[in-house]
Amino acid sequence: LAQRTDGARVPILVSIASWNPADQDLRAWLNDQLITDHPAFASAPPAGVDEDTRAAALLASGLILPILDGLDEIPEGVRGAAISHINDALRPGEPLLVTCRTQQYREAITPAHGLEVTLRGAAAVELCPLDASAVRSYLCDDAAGPAVRARWDPVFDVLGTEAPAGQALTTPLMVGLARAIYNPLPGESLTPLRDPAALCDPDLTDRTAVEALLFDAFIPAVYR
Fold first, then answer.
1. Does the pLDDT of residue 6 top 70, yes or no?
2. Which of 1, 114, 136, 216 is the most buried if burial means most Cβ atoms within 10 Å?
3. Are the C-beta atoms of 67 and 13 separated by less than 8 Å?
4. What are phi and psi of 147, to 5 degrees?
5. pLDDT at position 51
6. ∠ at Cα 126 (121, 132), nearest 5°?
7. Ramachandran category for residue 117: left, alpha or beta (phi over 0 → left; psi -120 to 50 → alpha)
């Protein structure tokens, strides 16, 4: 907001999982989502504006950049229809951001049965697996000192390999969970902390097992 110029669009994140494109067009659904997440937007717009609500006025004036998060979270059978409805709703030059897992997007735009469909005029940005050196730097930079960094050595040894922990720690989500679980908070001692070497336990036989460990440990760690 500090860098926003007057009249520039403000990005607003909305989960697309609740949208049924067969029942509601995109703009009507966005209007409802804005009002749900920001109740003040249900009020009347300024005088002289045709729309019924402040949310609708903001959408119509182009002051909002919708970020439709999770196309893969709506039912598989309607993802293609959702993409078509997004294309229909967009006006010339109107920006929009849609997030989706890669494989699910490919399946939606090239279905086994039916017509191919894609977001018109869209640029695609695909998140790639994190580089081992980036993961190492991130976890080290957050560590309080040499003793904390040394605890990560068994994990660092398997980064970039086919080991379960090496495969799991290739996404921002998993690396972020690991940081929160195994690095101390400011002023916290090492005594109550879990040991990151647990991520290399031989009983964790695949990537899924390591990810499950991180998910299970996250809530107790952040509320310790």
1. yes
2. 136
3. yes
4. -65, -40
5. 86
6. 160
7. beta
Residue 14's nearest CA partner among 41, 50, 52, 44 is: 41
Q: Count CB neighbours of 158 within 10 A.
A: 18
Q: At what angle do helices 79-89 and 26-37 cross, to 10 degrees?
A: 90
Full DSSP string of 126-151: -PPPPPHHHHHHHHHHHSSSHHHHHT
The three-state (H, E, C) secondary structure of 25-50, written as one string: CHHHHHHHHHHHHCHHHHCCCCCCCC
Measured between alpha carbons, how far is 91 from 194 in angstroms, rounded to an integer?
52
Strands of the sheet with 64-69, listed across from one edge: 10-15, 64-69, 97-98
* C-alpha–C-alpha distance, residues 199 and 168, integer Å: 9
Whole-number Å distance between alpha carbons of 168 and 151: 18
pTM to 2 decimal places: 0.71
User: What HEC string does 3-33 produce?
Assistant: CCCCCCCEEEEEEHHHCCCCCCCHHHHHHHH
3-state secondary structure of 98: strand
Q: Which helix (H) or strand (E) holds 80?
A: helix 79-89
Give the chain's length. Answer: 224
